[in-house]
UniProtKB/TrEMBL annotation:
<dbReference type="InterPro" id="IPR001633">
    <property type="entry name" value="EAL_dom"/>
</dbReference>
<feature type="transmembrane region" description="Helical">
    <location>
        <begin position="154"/>
        <end position="176"/>
    </location>
</feature>
<dbReference type="Pfam" id="PF00563">
    <property type="entry name" value="EAL"/>
</dbReference>
<feature type="domain" description="EAL">
    <location>
        <begin position="408"/>
        <end position="651"/>
    </location>
</feature>
<protein>
    <submittedName>
        <fullName>EAL domain-containing protein</fullName>
    </submittedName>
</protein>
<dbReference type="InterPro" id="IPR000160">
    <property type="entry name" value="GGDEF_dom"/>
</dbReference>
<dbReference type="InterPro" id="IPR035919">
    <property type="entry name" value="EAL_sf"/>
</dbReference>
<dbReference type="InterPro" id="IPR042461">
    <property type="entry name" value="LapD_MoxY_peri_C"/>
</dbReference>
<dbReference type="InterPro" id="IPR043128">
    <property type="entry name" value="Rev_trsase/Diguanyl_cyclase"/>
</dbReference>
<keyword id="KW-0472">Membrane</keyword>
<feature type="domain" description="HAMP">
    <location>
        <begin position="173"/>
        <end position="225"/>
    </location>
</feature>
<dbReference type="Pfam" id="PF16448">
    <property type="entry name" value="LapD_MoxY_N"/>
</dbReference>
<dbReference type="InterPro" id="IPR029787">
    <property type="entry name" value="Nucleotide_cyclase"/>
</dbReference>
<feature type="transmembrane region" description="Helical">
    <location>
        <begin position="6"/>
        <end position="26"/>
    </location>
</feature>
<dbReference type="InterPro" id="IPR032244">
    <property type="entry name" value="LapD_MoxY_N"/>
</dbReference>
<dbReference type="InterPro" id="IPR003660">
    <property type="entry name" value="HAMP_dom"/>
</dbReference>
<keyword id="KW-0812">Transmembrane</keyword>
Length: 651
């Protein structure tokens, strides 16, 4: 019971006690008053009878005495009348049983005992005592009056008590309303939300409590902000180029390797490699500030071009070399953008001393297919730059720009038909708890991987069909098909572990998707056995909508996670707003955790920050036991990767 309700109950109990006490006092007072009235009534009757019956008592005329007494007794106000002679001989006596009246309940009569007093009076005639009269009034009237008074008093006091309780409860709730705010602050703090009360109460004690709570909220929020800033600075130092803000060589190669070698979801694409000739001469000609602006401009232009594609990787490999890796080649768009970039750089090169080959920069474009490795892509790009330098050309394009990357019409039709018919082959990769042992493995969740069966009935990797799905605008249809298969599987196998489905930003934004998923979850009610993940880039690009979607899932019990965590340059302060149940650290950060002190420190900081918000942390792309051992030392909650085997088919 809340404090306010306890106070109201206490006040009500006091009022009940007050009513009971008042009723007792008033009843007792009324009882004494009524007994006095009965006594006076009996005494008056005895006096009048004594005066009237004096000569008849002296003559012992019993007939007259009986007629007179009966005439008075029949009025119903008397319980007993006795007439005695001087020698105490009973001349006449009449009585009736005590009654309390038909309107008075028996329990009230038993509770309130009324015994009317017997009043006597001597009878004198001609200056001598001739007898006595005894009169006892009946209690009917007294009981009726006492019962009526008790009823009226009870009704009045109950009404006043209820009104008082209502007014007092309103007043107490108003006075203690700041405590409700403190309670909401505490609950919000437990849910990783920071709320400050703006209305400060005037009551001294409550004011101190509210101010103390506001101060604590500010400190916790400041601690998290400082922790986030510290980790972000560390991440920038280790993985980001200080001048352009792009990924540095280490981060670029890690991301490229993760996409091409591990996920195999990038699909066919192209690599744009830009080399600035003789950077030292550039600094001498333009000055350090202008040269830096020149390099920033290059990096910014490549970033704008890459943002038109998803996913993309843009980085500065060395002081002179930049690279942008893009999926699915749009020949006209890339040619147009690169020609514009070359023209801009050529204009700026007019301020630079001529190079030996007459070119201040070179741009080379290479293409790759779904089977290409990260090392092969970068090796081909560097060879192409060498060719561009030998040919003294600013922009070198491949002879077969799109030949290996355009899907055949039959393959496009095959993929589209498979998605429309929901003929999706589902595999899964488990996430194992850090507390798992070889004898007792504990699976936290199974992440679902969508596969399209080729014409031979064999599952294809995502890289072989995902670009087709995007080009045909079927991402949302694919996501819906996987999600529907997941909830149906959970319904058919109620004893199975949780399943995880990745959704794209495009799907979440699709008209009608929120209604569709709400109905689906209501129909199958998977609860916390279903996890939905969003890529970190998608979360950062649209935080408000992601928060809305997260709140949409919260009442259903479905868990929410952020995939590929820790690589986006915007940092991770968004965790406070999104409040996921778990995050998955990107494989590019964990792949060298057993050999890199910088990676260990960064991951440790990320885990600490996430745990402070009650968020579970899992690591992706785990391939070696040494990685698991090191991650367990860093307090990771779970690990996922090829160390535990290849993805398996979902039965």
């Amino acid at each position: 019971m809340s404090l306010v309700n306890q106070l109201i109950a206490a006040v009500f109990a006091v009022l009940i006690g007050l009513v009971a006490g008042t009723l007792f006092i008033m009843s007792d007072s009324s009882k004494n008053m009524l007994l006095t009235q009965l006594e006076s009534h009996g005494q008056d009757t005895a006096t009048h009878l004594g005066l009237y019956l004096a000569p008849y008592v002296a003559d012992k005329d019993t007939a007259t005495i009986e007629a007179t007494v009966n005439a008075i007794f029949d009025s119903g106000f008397y319980q007993k009348i006795v007439i005695r002679s001087a020698d105490n001989e009973t001349l006449f006596e009449t009585s009736t049983l005590p009654q309390s009246g038909k309107s008075v309940p028996d329990w009230f009569v038993s509770l309130v005992q009324l015994t009317p007093p017997s009043m006597s009076r001597e009878i004198s005639f001609q200056w001598r005592k001739v007898g006595s009269v005894l009169v006892q009034s009946r209690a009917d009237y007294a009981y009726s009056q006492l019962w009526q008074g008790a009823q009226n008093t009870l009704i009045l006091f109950v009404s006043l008590s209820l009104l008082s309780v209502l007014l007092l409860s309103t007043l107490i709730r108003y006075i203690l309303s700041p405590l409700r705010g403190v309670e909401e602050q505490a609950q919000a703090l437990a849910e990783r939300q920071y709320i400050e009360q703006e209305n400060i109460p005037k009551t001294r004690e409550l004011k101190r409590v509210v101010l103390a709570m506001n101060s604590m909220v500010k400190r916790v929020q400041k601690m998290f902000a400082e922790q986030s800033l510290h980790i972000e600075e560390l991440r920038k130092t280790a993985y980001q180029d200080n001048l352009t803000g792009l990924a540095n060589q280490r981060s670029t190669m890690a991301l490229l390797s993760d996409w091409l070698d591990n996920r195999q979801e990038f699909g066919p694409g192209c690599c744009i490699y830009l080399h600035v000739n003789d950077l030292q001469a550039l600094n001498s000609a333009l000055g350090e500030e202008e040269a830096n602006n020149y390099l920033k401009h290059i990096g910014g232009t490549l970033s704008k071009l890459a943002m038109r594609f998803d996913p993309n990787i843009v980085g500065r490999l060395t002081g002179s070399d930049f690279a942008a890796i893009l999926p699915t080649v749009d020949e006209e768009l890339i040619k147009r953008e690169l020609n514009a970039l070359a023209a801009q750089l050529t204009t700026q090169s007019n301020f630079i001393s001529p190079q030996d080959d007459g070119m201040p920069f070179h741009i080379a474009v290479t293409t790759f297919d779904t089977l290409a490795s990260a090392n092969l892509v970068m090796s081909d790009a560097k060879l192409a730059i060498q060719v561009a330098k030998k040919q003294s050309t600013a922009l070198l394009l491949p002879d077969t720009f799109t030949g290996s990357t355009v899907a055949s019409e039959s393959w496009q039709q095959h993929v589209a038909k498979a998605i429309q018919n929901k003929n999706i082959f589902i595999q899964f990769q488990p996430v194992f708890s850090s507390h798992s042992t070889q004898d007792n493995p504990t699976i936290l969740q199974r992440e679902l991987l969508a596969r399209i069966l080729n014409k031979a009935g064999e599952p294809c990797s995502a890289g072989e069909f995902i670009h087709v799905v995007k080009s045909l605008n079927l991402i949302s249809a694919l996501d819906r098909a996987i999600l529907e298969k997941a909830v149906i599987h959970l319904a058919e196998y109620p004893e199975g572990g949780p399943l995880t489905v990745n959704l794209s930003q495009q799907t979440i934004h699709e008209d009608g998707f929120s209604t569709w998923i709400t109905q689906l979850l209501k129909q199958y009610a998977p609860g916390n056995r279903l996890n939905i993940e969003i890529n970190e880039t998608a979360a950062l690009n649209d935080i408000e909508h992601i928060v809305w979607f997260r709140n949409l899932l919260r009442p259903t019990g479905v868990q929410f996670g952020v995939d590929n965590f820790g690589v986006h340059p915007s940092g991770f302060s968004y965790l406070y707003s999104v409040q996921p149940n778990y995050i998955k650290i990107d494989g590019s950060l964990s792949r060298e955790v057993d050999t890199s002190a910088e990676d260990r420190f960064l991951i440790s900081s990320l885990i600490t920050a996430a745990h402070s918000l009650d968020i579970q942390v899992y690591a992706e792309r785990v391939e070696r036991n040494e990685q698991v051992q090191q991650l367990n030392l860093l307090k990771i909650d779970g690990t996922q990767g090829f160390l535990y085997g290849q993805p398996e088919a979902l039965n």
